[in-house]
Amino acid sequence: MPDLLRFGLIGCGAQGRYLSEALAMTRRAHLTACADISDEAAQKAVRFCGYAKAYSDYAQMLDAEQLDAVIVATTHDQLSTCALAALQAGKHALVEKPMALTVDDAKGLVDAARSARVRLMPGYTLRFMPERILMKKMLDEGAVGRLAHIGGGQLIGGMGGWLSDPLRGGGPVFYVGSHVIDHLLWLAGGGPTRVYAEIDWTQEDGVEAGVDATLRFPGGVTGHVCTSQKLGGRYGWVDVMGTGGRMRAEWESHDLLIQSTSRPEYTNLTRIQVPDDAYMPQVDPEAQARVSGFKYVRNWMAEISELIDAIEQDREPSATGADGVRALQVMQAIFDSARTGAPVDIEPY
Length: 349
Known about the structure:
CATH architecture of the largest domain: 2-Layer Sandwich
Oligomer: single chain
Distance between the termini: 37 Å
Number of strands: 15
Number of helices: 9
Order of helices and strands: EHEHEHEHEHEHEHEEEEEEEHHE
């Protein structure tokens, strides 16, 4: 059995602690050190997640500790800066979505990882939900024929704090819309060639209130993205429609709806109940999830385990830095299209 990888954490807020707890529950890593400008947040990561040492300066941590990999879970505006420092220091990195705020910064991370010969993985957790894994598998097997239309959304309630500040990467596009954008590109097998979008703004110089975007993929496939902070709760969905049927999955449900003309067992609309532990890492029966509870911890465990597998097997993770760039191309095109009122063409990456 290989030695445990030594992990560090940059950004000890709630999401950083959730991911760290999932990492600890994999029993495949040593939680070596964490860093945050807030001493209180860093000490919480030590106390609740088990990091051996806390730092107030992530650069000092990268210089002082013998780390193999880091989790970067800062505010959106700090993600690319912190991730770049970690990659240039020769550390593998799981970087929370959206990985950066500009396409150029995201490309810089890909280049840095390539130069340092380390693995870079954006934190797109929807790929690791059981019903979404089954949807992708069945789509690739031709269960709905040739893909024709794809769409989805992630909607939440009103956003406050730094998530309402455009200078810090706030707004639903970067926060939750990034998830559905990556998810649609993953299901479609690549990025779109053109994006047209309309945005309702919260106020002048504010973040977006609601977004609708049309995506055109190669081969005549079309897509739709919806994200907003107008909902009185949280809801997400993805629809896949092809020449031989359709599938639908919804947020916080492990059910997959399917109707197929090529699979006789699904001639009629059928609800597949996917077990919440399907495709997921096994959890030690004695493990306790104190920080996040068990609601999403399996998904985060699967996400982090994929990075560890990629490191140990010397391969790219299933969600790559290039995938992160392609998702940001769509996000940037959404903003550009909404401000100009015209479609935006996207160069393949």
